[in-house]
Structures are given as structure tokens and as C-alpha cells.
TrEMBL record:
It comes from Mucuna pruriens. This is Beta-1,3-galactosyltransferase GALT1. The gene is GALT1. PANTHER family: BETA-1,3-GALACTOSYLTRANSFERASE GALT1, BETA-1,3-N-ACETYLGLUCOSAMINYLTRANSFERASE. Its main location: Golgi. Pathway: Protein modification; protein glycosylation.
Amino acid sequence: MPFDLCDAVFACFALGFYARNGGWSMISVYIYDNCLKEPSATVCGVCLLESRMVAKSHILPNTMKIQDYCFIHRITKMKKLYGGVLIASLFMLFTLMILRYGLMKNPIGEGYLTIPVLINGTNPLEWINPTIPPAIQNPDVHSQVISSDILVSSLFAGSNFSKEEQRALQTWNQLNHLIDHAQGLPNAAEAIKEAASAWSSLISSIEEQKQGHANDSSRTKEKQCPHFLNKMNSTELGNSSYKLQVPCGLTQGSSITIIGIPNGLLGNFRIDLTGEPLPGEPDPPIILHYNVRLHGDKITEDPVIVQNTWTIAHDWGEEDRCPSPTPEKVEKVDELEQCNKIVGKNISQLYTAGMHSHTSRQSSTTEEQSINRKYFPFKQGYPFVATLRVGSEGIQMTVDGKHITSFAFRETLEPWLVSEIKISGDLKLVSILASGLPTSEDSEHIIDLESLKSSPISSQTPLDLFIGVFSTANNFKRRMAVRRTWMQYNAVRSNKTAVRFFVGLHKSPVVNEELWREAQTYGDVQLMPFVDYYSLITWKSLAICIFGTQVSAKFVMKTDDDAFVRVDEVLDSLHKINVANGLLYGLINSDSHPHRNTDSKWYISSEVE
């Protein structure tokens, strides 16, 4: 089997899916075994995508373009491999897309996108430039066709960047070819279109700063992501509904604490964590819908908590109810129950009927009365303190210090997307506090700033090891923790090992502006030309492979921003093995299985196997 650069990159594709889901890819073993038999291979063993797995990489003098060869060649092979099953699946998916959205031909490539337009004749070009005024109303026109190239042309257009600024974009243009295959991954088309809008906004902001219009320090401060948000005046909050804007999203460890009193006729209320609506869509996605119904609903007359998500593409998802009608099927989230078992169960409560005292010695007679009632954390007319906390797998709710519910993240609906907290219903809101919000450190107040900066990578000096780190745009604190810990190893500081964060754009302009400042300050961020959905993690894997070959690294490694890498031990292991070709891997959890629940954030379809 001829082994070329395309095969190596495809191995990264396969290993990225299988390693993350606890399985092992036999195709990768086959590729690498045949690689050893092919001395004429362009690349042998580019990379393996787990933090403890590293592979040897050889770079030949020829500098062929990956995008011009690899994807056309490899995707053609894949189509032949999967045959009729893949064609049938694509046909069914294509039919559904026609029914809901209209005909989409190569959604981000050279084709055209038919966009449903409401009767008011809203101009679709407003997706690109919100300052464009609405078009003249034309009730006779129900849809308009625009070139999808317009939506993404700004992503790869030349910009007036300095040499230092371009260091954050070393892999940017080389991912241009991905737009022609955006239909292969969930949310890929949307991620690129959203990135076009985000990038245009960021470029405008950068130009303003260069022209001296944004030098005011107070204005810069206002643009920074806040550490916390709060509202304490109950008279201003009102009794109907309240919205709290979250400019930079949520991250693991973020929490929202609400003090309120259920009131009104029924005492039902809702907490919605919503994102930004997609271009052309009237309603935003709901990352979490937390619905408290004190008098039940159509399914039950007992008090119930209903958790769900909503998107315009998939409507409401499957409800998570507490108490659950099928408690035996309930799974844990972050090692916590989806619904506390005491919710809805009969409990006994002791009441003290009276207490008697005397002057010299006290004596009491207590009458205990046992009253059976069903436990529910919210009660009409009684105040509560509820906290929603973002975990690694989902969102937890505690009420008056007791864990009540957990809600697992669902596919494409991640905490960084949250842009607003909406509270509505029969609730007197006393106060709300959002804390642990993602924010970057002010470089002016960092004492050890110089020691945290990364030096440019010289093409004349090959690296022993290149480490690519997956990170999300608003994970400022995690990246700073990495800079202050394992990036301080001598091998990293001496430039024998290089570390770069691979980060997609954010839908929030504030986050993107802080991310750009961070990239220019520390020199260790590689920006990706798409909005950072988890389903596009494979594109980041490809970016790491591409970057690792560009800088002539002997070894390429992938890890996450919440991992600690013993760089000294990794290098020591590589030197001890002393092999020219092959694959080095560590512990593999072979008992795990891919997630087949389509609602799961980590969902993997059977077609991937």
C-alpha cells in the first residue's frame, strides 16, 4: 500500500475519533505497518492524537500542498470504501436539508445557498454586515439566492498584518480547503459562516486600534470580559422577567446564583441559558431550559422540574424530568445524579409543638408530630437560593445547599455559547450573581510577563517535540495555568520543545478581541478560521499535523488545556526508544465505547467506524 502525506493526515483523522472514545483504530496500525515497508513514503508516522501518544515524523524537501492533494485523493478513497451505504446516508441527509432549509449545494464552497426569506423581505446580506439597511419589502419574493463565497471571502482575504501579527495565523490559510468539505462534520457550515462575521468584526476593531480610535484605557477596560455580573436591587428586577447579558459566555467552574421567591397564581418559573441566534434566525438556541412547575404539567399533577434544550434546526430535545419516570435508566453527570432520589419521595418532618421553662431549672415537653409529604426543593411563597454550576460534563443545580439536578451537555450546545440568562414566570427575583466567568489577565499587572512569552519558532532549527494544545476561545485561565506550569520546563524555555494553543473564534466580539490581544502578547496562540464547536475538533487535529510538519518537528503531540504534560518524561521516553519510525502510545481505555446518543456532546455516528 503506497503511504503518502494524505494517508498520514487521514491517520490523524481516524485516530482523533477512536482515541477520544476509548477505542483503537486498526486502520492506523495497518497504515503505520505499511509505512515501515515503504521507504519512499512522503511522511511516516505524522502524529497520534492523544496527550500521551507521540509519533515520529520525517519531512522531505518537497513542499506539496496538502489541501491540493490530500482531501480530493483521500475522500475519493473513502467514498469507494463505504460504497452504497454512504451514498444512501448522504441522500437521506440531503433530502432532509431540502425539506427544512431549501436546496444547499456545497454550502460553503463554490455553490449557491438558497436562503428562506420572511415576508418582510429582510436582506440576507445583513448576515455579513448588520449595518446594511433592510431591503425594500417584496411579498412576491419568498427566497433569494446568494453566493456562499460572499459569506466566507473575508476569512481568507489579505489583511494589513505585521510579521508579528501573522504568527498567530500560520495555519489559517492552509485550512482554506476545509470549506469545500464543510458538509462532512456537524455544524461545520455554520461554524465557517459565523467565523466570517466574527473575523470581519475583529478586523474592524484591530484597524480602529491601529488608527488610534481605541487607545482610551477606560474603553479598553469596558471591553474586557467581566469576572462576575450581579444585580441586587429587587425593585429593579421586577416580578415578570429579567435578562442578564453574559458577554463572554460560561466555562467550567462558572456559576449562576439566584435568590427568589415563587409567587403568583401558580408559582411556576423558568431559567433559560440562551446563545446568539444564527444569521437569519429569529430565535436563539437554548443551551439549558430549566422549568419549575409547582403544580405539575400534562404528564403529572405532582411538582416537577423539566430540563431541555431547543434549536431552530432540531426543535425541543428529549426532556429530562425530576423526579424521573424511569429512574433506573438515569445516568450520572459529573458523578452526580441527574435527579436527586429524595425529590418526590415522602419524608417525615418533626415539629416542636411547645416548650416550657422554669426559673431555677428548665424542663421541656416536646410534642413531635410526623407529617408525610413529598419533598420538592421549591415551594410557593418561600425563598430559595439556587445555584447553576458548569461542570466538565454538564450543568448542576443546587438548591439551599443540596444537589438537586444535573443536565448533560448536548451536541453543539456548549457553555461558551451562553450569551444571556433569562428568568421568567411567577417569581419574585431578589438577586442574581454570575461568577467564575472567563476573563483574561491584564498584562499590565503580570510581574512575570516576559517568562510567559513564547519565542518564534525558527525554521532553521528543527524541534525535538512540538505539542499542540486544544483550547476554547474563552478558556483564558486554563491557558495561563499551562504557561505558568509545564510550559516552564527547560526543554520548552530553551526552544527544543514548542507549545502552541489551537483556538477557534468565538461568536462574541469581546472574546475575540481579548483572544487577539492574548495571541499578540504571548505568541503561543494559533487561530482557526471557524467558530470553536466541539464537533470540529478533527479540524484542529489536522491543523496540529500541518503545523508540526511546517516547523520540522521530530515528534508531534496533542493534548488538552486541562492536562499537565511531563515534558521531561516524554522526551526521556522518546530518546530511550530511539526508533526512526513507528508509533508510541500510552494507556488506552479499551473498555469504553463511542457515545451513540445523538443528544450527547460526544456523539459519534456509526459511519465513523
